[in-house]
Automatic annotation (TrEMBL):
PANTHER family in the cross-refs: OPIOID GROWTH FACTOR RECEPTOR OGFR ZETA-TYPE OPIOID RECEPTOR, OPIOID GROWTH FACTOR RECEPTOR-LIKE PROTEIN 1
Record-level GO cellular component terms: membrane
Organism: Sinocyclocheilus grahami
Superkingdom classification of source: Eukaryota
GO molecular function, one term: opioid growth factor receptor activity
Name the record gives this protein: Opioid growth factor receptor like 1
Upper lineage: Eukaryota, Metazoa, Chordata, Craniata, Vertebrata
Domain Opioid growth factor receptor (OGFr) conserved: from-to ranges: 121-325
Biased composition (Basic and acidic residues): 342-379
Region (Disordered) residue spans: 1-49, 342-381
Length: 395
């Protein structure tokens, strides 16, 4: 038995659908969608070429930036899959699609990085020691207390310094600052049980919220616009690299015991992006990344349903449940009815009995051929599974 467990190998997901279990659990996936529209596969079929060009040049380019930053920040993430997907996007400019890169990244996070090996001895706890003010962040040599007391409101420093964010919001993955070390499972447990570290972590969170134009309202994680929201939202809408920071902050909240803080923040950002229109450039990143940092299926479903009610144009909303396949009760009955329709059409249009019989025979033969192809395609679809429903977007 021990050898059986030891020989088990983690199989990485190969499609967006394998990465995303949001809609596959209970009967909530069967609920009627807002507005009475039919459930769709998550791929827009009716996007005009002009809409597609606008989507690539405005929204999806921000996602390209988002993903490229992630590749550069994570030295273990190769660029080749990203470049391949980017090429696919340019070749398929007539429909928006989910990003396999994003789906896989968030899948690994939500499942605690399966098949991940700890990078160092767990007793170093450098992230915890930093938050206990015992060691400074490297390479800048700054202690956490200095950041908490002197950096609040210094938006120029928070914007242009790129070494602190990996220390303030550590993850179990490498960031752009290679001096910062990844969290380990043992360190996460120790951090969550250390009151002083958690207190400072929340203060760091409020500093970043203020930088984005948001304020923390209570200990439950509820948030709202800050007094300076107009200036900060304008800046946030134009500085897409901060979307990567938000993704990191959301992930870190979940790692260090503040999973419940994610939902209020993501809901506010979706509301500003989709309803208020103050962060229009963020809406794709919010839906493709921020929502999927939440580990609970029900919370992701609630956010996506909220977004679907307000997304424009609605036919381009690609995060809805997969379309259900309707299988006829009796395929032979349907085919027989189809042949009867062929008979009626052919006889009705025929100029003579002989011509009618010829038309009937030709169309009946065509129907038989279509039936064969349909059965063959049905077999192929069973082999391929539901991967057909989703394709990767280059970004």
């Amino acid at each position: 038995m021990g050898n059986l467990m030891g020989s088990w190998r983690y199989k990485e997901p190969s499609t967006v659908e394998e990465c995303d279990s949001t809609w596959e659990t209970d009967s909530e996936s069967d609920e009627h969608q807002p507005g009475g529209e039919e459930e769709d596969s998550g791929i827009s079929e009716s996007m005009s070429p002009a809409d597609a060009v606008r989507g690539i040049t405005k929204e999806e380019q921000y996602e390209v930036i988002h993903t490229l930053f992630h590749c550069l920040c994570n030295h273990s993430t190769p660029l080749s899959p990203f470049l391949s997907q980017f090429g696919d996007m340019m070749e398929s400019s007539t429909r928006m699609k989910r990003s396999f890169y994003a789906a896989k990244d968030l899948y690994k996070y939500r499942h605690s990085y399966p098949n991940y090996k700890e990078p160092r001895q767990p007793n170093e706890y450098r992230n915890l020691r930093f938050y206990l003010n015992k060691i400074p962040l490297v390479p800048d040599g700054i202690y956490i207390e200095e950041i908490l007391t002197k950096w609040r409101g210094d938006y120029e420093k928070l914007e242009h310094n790129h070494t602190y964010i990996q220390w303030l919001f550590p993850l179990r993955e490498q960031g752009l600052n290679f001096y910062a070390q990844e969290l380990t499972q043992d360190e996460i447990k120790e951090f969550q049980s250390t009151r002083e570290a958690k207190r400072r972590f929340l203060l760091a969170y409020t500093i970043m919220l203020d930088f984005f134009g948001i304020k923390l309202l209570d200990k439950n994680g509820n948030v709202a616009r800050a007094l300076n929201w107009q200036d900060r939202f304008q800046h946030l809408n134009e500085s897409q690299h901060n979307y990567l920071r938000i993704t990191r902050i959301l992930k870190s909240l979940g790692e260090l015991g503040f999973e419940s803080f994610k939902l209020p923040l993501v809901h506010l950002l979706l509301e500003e992006a989709l309803v208020e229109g103050t962060l229009p450039n963020m809406r794709h990143s919010a839906l493709e990344y921020f929502v999927y940092t939440l580990r609970q299926h029900a919370q992701r479903r609630a956010l996506l349903r909220f977004a679907q009610r307000h997304y424009q144009p609605p036919e381009n909303f690609i995060w809805r449940p997969p379309k259900k396949k309707r299988i006829p009760a009796s395929g032979s009955t349907v085919m027989k009815a189809g042949k009867n329709e062929v008979v009626e059409r052919s006889v009705g249009k025929a100029r003579s009995p002989r011509e009618g019989r010829n038309n009937l025979e030709r169309e009946a033969d065509d129907m038989d051929e279509r039936k064969k192809y349909k059965e063959r395609d049905s077999g192929n679809s069973r082999v391929n599974g539901t991967a057909i429903l989703f394709h990767t977007i280059a970004f």
